[in-house]
Write a structure and sequence with these properties.
275 residues, alpha/beta, seven-stranded mixed sheet, elongated, 27% helix
Length: 275
């Protein structure tokens, strides 16, 4: 599964065959300086990127360097204290595909990748005709994706406007209110959902409270897929996770935490089921 999604996130791939050079920075630079000048144009790719300037300054007087029209690729990468270097045919240069149109202003965002990946990773199978609640739905990428998955009805809860293409879908019921103010409408419409999803940009405990307020409208065993956006820049958030667990209590079961490829450094995906 992850290979199917990885193509969206991989920017560079560096190949280092057994005959590649490795050593200290001085050793690798000395090797490059002593190399026979290639007859073809060369593209340089380095990690970290600032290393590229040093390599370029070293070679540009004698080598024909070209980032667009090239037949060879020179890769120089620092891994810890060791530098790796290889020269390969240009066809080995990985180019990130751009076959997916970019988000347009006011349109659904690429945040839908989080929902797609979570459903695949956790093997969540939805029977056509299911009912879902999308908390914090605007601009509507998650709502639109749920309709594509066969939703009979999606209750999109958000004070903000949905993209017009999403709002006009017959399966979509937009409740333009905050979660805590949408309970009456959901009750009047007899909402009994199979799935509750959320990608709100709010503190994790706030998101958990909003989701728990809607739990009465989720059928027993119904799935929750919720993005938690933690403050700060660290990779670990044990205190915040415990705070979310305290809010969830025993109202949910089968709780899983995932750091998806589609998540940012500070995001985690909560997947659970109503107890």
């Amino acid at each position: 599964m992850r290979a199917s999604r990885a193509i969206n996130y991989i920017i560079r791939v560096y190949f280092f065959p057994e005959e590649g050079i490795q050593g200290s920075k001085i050793e690798v630079m000395d090797h490059l300086r002593a190399m026979q000048v290639p007859l073809d144009k060369v593209r340089i790719q380095t990690s970290p990127p600032e290393l590229g300037k040093e390599v370029q300054d070293l070679l540009e007087e004698k080598w024909e360097l070209d980032p667009r029209e090239y037949r060879l690729t020179l890769s120089v990468v620092r891994l810890g204290d060791t530098y790796h270097c290889s020269m390969l045919p240009g066809k080995c240069m990985y180019r990130q595909p751009h076959n997916e149109p970019a988000s347009t202003k006011g349109g659904p965002s690429r945040a839908v990748r989080k929902l797609q990946e979570a459903m695949e990773l956790c093997n969540i199978k939805l029977t056509p005709g299911f009912i879902a609640i999308d908390l914090g739905a605007a601009p509507g990428s998650w709502t639109s994706y749920l309709v594509q998955c066969g939703a009979k009805q999606v209750f999109a809860i958000d004070p903000a406007q949905l993209n017009s293409g999403v709002a006009d879908m017959p399966q979509v019921v937009h409740i333009p209110k905050p979660a805590q103010n949408s309970l009456t409408e959901l009750a009047i419409m007899g909402c009994s959902a199979d799935l509750l999803v959320c990608d709100m940009n709010e503190p994790p405990k706030t998101v958990a409270r909003r989701a728990m307020a809607l739990l009465p409208f989720l059928s027993k065993g119904g799935k929750l897929i919720v993005t938690m956006k933690f403050p700060g820049t660290g990779r670990e958030h044990p205190g915040a996770l415990e705070g979310v667990k305290a809010v969830l209590g025993n109202q949910v079961k089968d709780v899983e935490w995932h750091w998806l490829m589609a998540n940012t450094l500070c995001e985690r995906c909560l997947v659970a089921a109503k107890a």
